[in-house]
Write a structure and sequence with these properties.
The structure is a homodimer of 288-residue chains. Chain A is an alpha/beta fold. The first copy, chain A, has one domain (4-283): TIM Barrel (Alpha-Beta Barrel). Chain A contains 13 helices and ten strands. Chain A has an eight-stranded parallel beta sheet with strand order 2-1-10-9-8-5-4-3. Chain A has a two-stranded antiparallel ribbon with strand order 6-7. In chain A, helix 10 (213-222) runs parallel beside helix 11 (240-247) and helix 11 crosses helix 13.
Chain lengths: 288, 288
């Protein structure tokens, strides 16, 4: 059976790209604040950028704001990526950015909503509730999870940068003792260690913002094998090269660089996607 | 202007109840796995229990699983609570349990989706992304937020029980130094301290599970003034009296005890709600 990250890695090879195109129909970018306009906005972006996209990432909030009609539009946008994949003969994964997280029976319903009802291939998930709240999203190895680790916003420091001291208890005793031996571990590094051990089916990655390249490097050393979804390049101030330098795996993979406004607000989104892909490739080449 | 917690406290007085009725149309409890069945399930519960409910808490996941139709059903369920409130002449707040949390511009869209599109009065929010991700949900004092603090599931220990050591940085320096003076603070207590300082508009409370009464007592001492939404009584194993003992404020308020399956799966949900309300009242009486 193909795991989510086998699917992603194949697409990365087929399109020679680590670019994830964010589908964020922000009301300010729409001609009118309607679900129809959100759909049109995204379908245009998909049509323009699909050949250069290793993945697409629709942002659930900008659809939910339109209620049931927004939900229909979101489903159509995800369907459109699957249709475009067929046309190109190369499956492009859809990562639904919805940052869900709840106790087990509820998490199961969220997993079904994202993976079955909407047809997404992967989902962003919040780690605050712990392992039993993440597990229902990981049950199907075909479907992936990107666990929030170090987010791109300034407020990420409030919790994620806290030093987690010795004496903590986790469900995983071996891990607790490993963490205890480390001199000073931030909460986001702890999440990275947890994710590295929880990834038993090759379908768990991390969200690490490009706005904190030092944090990205620390997360890479805590989770050397995992894929990272990296938002924050461009509009949020993250630097592409610093992110690649800090986060690429030895095999020149392991990073999915998300760009949303940097492409959607460009005069020519196709050209912007081509250029982002080229910039990433230029950096990758010496390493692969 | 009325704040969210003024609204809630008035309803608590008017119905002499601290009971929050959870609206969780779990597929296993429905005659058929459809949005229609979910709506009927919830409308029946609302009709049966409204006189004894200080609040209703629909669980978003069990509607999202039905896609756009589920979203429509969720909106109709929320509307039904508002209609029932008019009939009773006493406004019953709707707390949408959706555990959202994202960076600022996205959080704004989630806030609009919950408060404007769906018409909820309050929302559960995940604290992992920090203050700037919570703030967009707090802008309208009429609308409330319950921030996840110590959740009712076993895995809550994985992150929430971690000891946050000295040396951490937060956006709030005075708070950092206050926390540093404390001997040993768990992440969930840190979140409680943060929430206590972030609650400048009387519209921020906490989610604290009834399954951990010692934790509930610690959160109460960290956040003496806040309202807590307390899930986990009954099906999840939390004990009602222990929760009340550990969490009630000096004024006999400050706790909203959520019961979902304990009411919805009862032979007579109305009677079950009456009995839960009575048990809570019996415990409260000596204190007020």
């Amino acid at each position: 059976m193909e795991t989510f990250f086998t699917l992603l890695a194949r697409r990365v090879d087929e399109c020679a790209s680590l670019l994830c195109v964010g589908l964020d129909p922000h009301p300010a970018d729409l001609p009118a604040p309607t679900a129809d306009a959100a759909r049109t906005f995204c379908l245009h972006l998909i049509e323009q950028t699909a050949p250069y996209a290793a993945a697409f990432k629709p942002n659930s909030a900008f659809f939910e704001v339109f209620g049931a009609e927004g939900w229909t539009a979101l489903k159509e946008v995800i369907d459109a990526v699957h249709a475009e994949s067929k046309r190109l003969g190369s499956r492009i994964p859809v990562i639904l950015d919805a940052k869900r997280g709840d106790i087990a029976s509820t998490a199961e319903a969220y997993a079904r909503a994202a993976f079955e009802t909407l047809g997404a291939d992967a989902l962003t998930v919040n780690p605050y509730l712990g392992r039993d709240a993440v597990e229902p999203f990981l049950r199907d190895p075909n479907k992936g999870v990107f666990l929030l680790c170090k987010t791109s916003n300034p407020g990420s420091a409030d919790l994620q940068d806290l030093t987690v001291g010795s004496g903590q208890q986790t469900a995983d005793r071996a891990l607790s003792s490993a963490v205890r031996r480390l001199p000073s571990v931030s909460l986001y590094e702890h999440v990275a260690y947890l994710a590295q051990t929880w990834n038993t089916a090759d379908n768990l990655g991390l969200v690490v913002g490009a706005t904190h390249p030092e944090a990205l490097a620390r997360v890479r050393s805590a989770a050397p094998d995992l894929w990272f979804l990296v938002p924050g390049v461009g509009a949020q101030g993250g630097d592409l090269k610093s992110a690649l330098r800090a986060g690429l795996r030895m095999d020149g993979k392991g990073l999915l660089i998300n760009v949303s406004r940097g492409i959607s607000r460009a005069e020519n989104p196709r050209l912007a996607a081509v250029e982002f892909r080229e910039q990433i490739l230029a950096f990758r080449r010496p390493k692969v």
